[in-house]
Specification:
The protein has helices spanning 9-21, 69-74; strands at 3-6, 25-29, 37-45, 58-62, 79-85, 88-94, 96-102, 105-111, 116-119, 121-122, 136-140, 150-159, 162-167, 183-191, 194-207, 217-222. The chain is mainly β and 235 residues long. It has two domains: 3-119, Pnp Oxidase, Chain A (Roll); 123-222, Thrombin, subunit H (Beta Barrel). It has a nine-stranded antiparallel β-sheet with strand order 1-9-6-5-2-3-4-8-7. It has a six-stranded antiparallel barrel with strand order 11-12-13-16-15-14. A hairpin with a 2-residue loop joins strand 12 (150-159) and strand 13. The radius of gyration is 20 Å and the shape is elongated.
Length: 235
């Protein structure tokens, strides 16, 4: 099964927020050590607390188990972190920046991952997702557009067999390319727990007349590859 790489900081942050809220255990692997060691992510610091000039977010994690791994972590330039969400494996590389000794966040300050690898799940697996929360949908239109371009749209609504994708001003050229009935293959859907690939058909293009997205468009996609109930992404 393929690994898909996510390098969008905001989307990685949403996934890690999910890991924090669900108290999902993380595994820390150290090359050459028997391990693995375990911990949990306590919080994300939006601004660095270890440097006055560094602006990237940081992760605060609990002390490792077993305890002897804590002294080892301080001496390493970087470590591999893995965690699973609904049996979907995610992994990244981070480094230890320092210790966090202010209660209740006693543990370590780790760098925020520059990228996150997610083990892809395809529609052929036919597994049930349960309640899902898709963040975005990405697809290319190399055959229809003058140039190959990746369109990455936020998922505004989600139903059992379809999606409503938000088309903002920066992607309005998409509406000149697609029309009702057009088929889209290899749509990559990102959720906090997985990245999956589906196909679908354009069902409608509707202008949004009110609310915070007034003036934008809703691109409806019918897809029989989506299994389970969905809920809207209200971000």
């Amino acid at each position: 099964m393929a690994w898909l790489t996510l390098d969008d900081t905001q989307k990685i942050m949403r996934i890690i927020d999910h890991v924090i809220s669900k108290r999902i255990e993380i595994t820390i692997r150290v090359k050459g050590e028997r391990g693995p060691f375990t911990s949990k992510i306590i919080r994300i610091n939006q601004g660095s607390i270890s440097s006055e000039t560094e602006s990237r977010p940081e992760l605060i994690i609990e002390n490792l188990f077993p305890e002897e791994a804590n002294s080892l972590l301080r001496s390493l330039p970087e470590v591999a972190v893995e965690f699973s969400i609904n049996k979907t494996l995610c992994r990244c590389i981070v480094e230890c920046i320092g210790s966090s000794s202010t209660p209740p966040h006693v543990g370590f300050i780790m760098s925020f991952p520059e990228s996150l690898e997610i083990k892809e799940k395809r529609r052929e697996d036919r597994f049930t997702y349960g309640t899902t929360e898709f963040i975005s949908a990405g697809f290319r239109l190399a055959k229809r557009a003058k140039r190959d371009k990746l369109f990455e749209l936020n998922v505004l609504t989600c139903s059992r067999h379809g999606l409503g994708l938000l088309v903002t001003r920066k992607d309005l050229d998409l509406l000149r390319i697609l029309k009702k009935g057009d088929r889209l293959d290899d749509i990559i859907l990102l959720a906090p727990w997985a990245m999956i690939t589906v196909s679908g058909t354009v069902s409608h293009v509707t202008k949004i007349e009110e609310g915070k997205h007034k003036g934008c468009y809703l691109l409806g996609i019918d897809s029989r590859d989506i299994i389970g109930d969905c809920k809207p992404n209200n971000d």
